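RETRY 2/3 - previous attempt timed out on the joint model. Re-submitting the same 779-residue input unchanged.
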Amino acid sequence: MKRSYLFGLALAAAFGASQAGAEELTGTLKNIKDTGAITLGFRDSSIPFSYLDDNQKPVGFAMDICYKVVDAVKKELKLDKLEVKLNPVTSSTRIPLLANGTIDLECGSTTNNAERQKQVTFTNTHFLTASRYVSKKSSNINSIDDLKGKTVVSTAGTTNIKQLTEANVARNLGANIIPAKDHAEAFLMVETDRAAAFVMDDILLASLVAGSKDPSIYVISKDAFSKPEPYGIMLRKDDPAFKKVVDAATAAVYTSGEGQKLYDQWFMAKIPPKGLNLNTPIGPELKAEFAKPSDSPDPDSYKPAM
Amino acid sequence: MFANFDFDVIRRSLGYLFFDGMTFTLTLTALSALGGLVFGTAIALMRLSGLKLLGRIAGIYVDFMRTLPLVLVIFWFYFLVPYIGQWLTGASRPISVGAFASSLITFVMFEAAYFSEIMRAGIQSISRGQPAAAQALGLTYRQTMRYVVLPQAFRNMLPVLLTQTIVLFQDTSLVYVLSIPDFLGAASKVAQRDGRLVEMYLFAALVYFTISCVASFGVRRLQARIAIVR
Amino acid sequence: MNYHWNWHIFLEPNPMGTGTYLDMLLSGLWLTIGTGLAAWIIALVLGSIVGVLRTLPSRAASWIGFAYVEFFRNMPLLVQLFLWFFVLPELLPRTWGLWLKQLPHAPFYTAAIGIGLFMSARVAEQLRAGIGSLPRGQKMAATALGLNTVQTYAYVLLPMAFRIILPPLTSEFINTIKNTAVAITIGLLELTGEARSMQEFSFQVFEAFTAATVMYLLLNLVIVTAMRLIERAVAIPGYISGK
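RETRY 2/3 succeeded.
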């Protein structure tokens, strides 16, 4: 009953909007106010940014930041209640689902780069990471060139698989590249010897290794496929009002010291489901970014404070 | 051979598998079958009506849906439905559609093509005498369809319709490609999270097999009982 | 609509370095055809054997055929592919399992065999129906002439049965081609998989899928026409299988 009422309200508002000239709210904010709900996209296994814990509930660093944004939106729209809907996304569905309106914010481990900014936009960076690969110590793969002729896996729809593909052509590696649906599946391929290496952002690799059955048999490469690139929470393009609210909310989180607290909670303490501690202290570039939040896609713009 | 396997993982995840996964699968199957049947019957009637244009449109729809792989249709609808919603309701931006609604629309539209062929065969198998007698009694086209032809067609084709529903039940597993949490998707999630591929996939195979087997057996019994002696 | 159309995407170079996006889709198309044909040949061979088994007078043979068909019909194709691809290598002795897992083009072989087995059950059912629809006099006449079972099947029953089931076999062949799309879940980059890859790299969702749709429609047209020609070529004058 309530749903059809809300839907009717949304319809009426939609028709009303097409007739009225200057509306106070537009785009996503308007939709949120009309439907009383905001939809967050979450990941399955992007530990510790956005993943499912033992009760199949999405948790993580990016999720917590998103919830803070939701609070800010609620305050901005002066709503008594704001329903938060959660929708699972994968690397390959996140952009189309954002574009077609299924989700309003994508809270995960999405790399912010100029090419993606043609389709979507990002808010202030919440992490910096470079693309590396993980392999079993026994496979003796010590550099990117050792991947010659091997089977390498990466997750479909990521910048990593693109970088891997380009490196494969540029360095003439002749590697057989398999796309996997999500990170857990890809890591499993290395675990079961189906692939020799898994190319992904190094923080995600570290988390997967730490959570595996026997972490000591894996090694993460020193070689990187890219410079440390920024992660950002994604939102729709051409929606400046919504971006303003989200940017303000994330900037507030980072500059107030809350960002550092959340960081320590997910990177320096025990996290669900197995109580692992990733023990990754905050890097100088990220610390500088928290002090002065930026949504730039250019990796070179993130420098440690002098 | 089975020494390394931890079948306990199945017991631990039973709740999630059946309450979340299987409920999704069964609900999707049931609703899609109903929706597909209604829509399919409408398409069949369009094809059998005397009107050339309607028949053509229906024919093209059926041929189109039957040529494409279900996986491709699933992708199409998942990304397309919100835009269609926007166009239909004149909203300023695409309508947000959840995974279940999108899957439901996909399967209803897809299965309607198959159900329409079955219903068309069913309607055509009814002897000409029936609608002729109905006309002689003064019933309109709508009344003839509703009271004379469709009930008989439905009864004749019930076993085939149920078999197609079993096929639909198995086809719902394909929403896996979009990480939508049906039964197979749930089993897969547990498998990848705990690294227990063998146990979970064997269990999933067993469950699908049992349900389909029992259902097929039921359909065969039903077929024997309702067969009309001519 | 905030979707940015770009139909020129097909002529733009793809990130794999193998040419344009169109080349990517075409390579997927070849793989679809290749996998489909391989699977169909397996399906025909095995399906015929099982179909014949089900019509033999021996009860044991009939039961084996029944079990075979029920096994492959009651599991979704996706689950079967997972069993062959993920479960089988783990159940074998370690060296064999490793060899299977690291076989180049493993998804292709698994898909061809998995889909082939799945479709063989359906071919078997069609053949059983085809043989069953022949007048009983045929078999009796063959026995009267002194032909044994093998000769009866080879010279009398099967030639006619195959001609009768040629139309349903055409749709089963098309189903085989459609079922190759399921193999994207085990990493086979056939047409649907390449369209998805294209969508992921270029973000042009609708262009990619439209191209894939058009290619499937064309493929369907080619197959239906080819099968119709075959039907006409093998039709026995004055017999069934009319138009």
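Chain C has a mean pLDDT of 88. Closing ticket.
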